[in-house]
Design goal:
212 residues; 10 strands; 8% helix; elongated
Amino acid sequence: MKKIALASVAFVGLATAASANLVDTVNKSGFYVGINGGYGFGKSKNTLANGAKVNVKPKGGLYGIHTGYQHDLGRSVVGLELHGLMTEQKGKKTTPANAHIKSKRDYGYGVSARMGYKVAPCWVAGIKLGYERAKYLNHFTDSANVGHKKSVKLNGFVPGIYAEKLLNKRWMVGLEYSYAMFKKHSYTSTGAKKITVKPTSNDFKVRLGYKF
């Protein structure tokens, strides 16, 4: 988390310096809609009843839609965005006791505040701070092949950085990285044994948007 914060501060600092003498005649204010797709990889930190820690690493493609409003303040652009996504992120890990733990991130939706700076004509780079509610599926199978599934919806804090280019008055493309940190949760496996899980995810997206 500290690395993300430091990277975001440095990112915004460089963007601000680069935009100090920039004159951009393209106004970026307006509502927009878009689609996005990319890849995500994360970690589900499992703590078993005996204290053993098992890290499952879900990974896979993701795709979604987004819509929002942004306001051009001159050298900076601020906005609020809603998003929804589906993912193919899943992973599996076998413990030393020959038990199997699976983790899958199914879908998510949320909102984020975005603040960017004009670093070149038609280019904006910035940071985002958001909230996401995601569905995760946990599956524990013991050495006797007796399984237990638990589906949960988790709240998460999602900071990130982005760069976006306005191709013309309507169309824009961009790149985005975000780090999702979801709430720790617990479920009961076979034999009434408690398992605690703390999921995180690194998401990389390519975006295409249309501004009204």
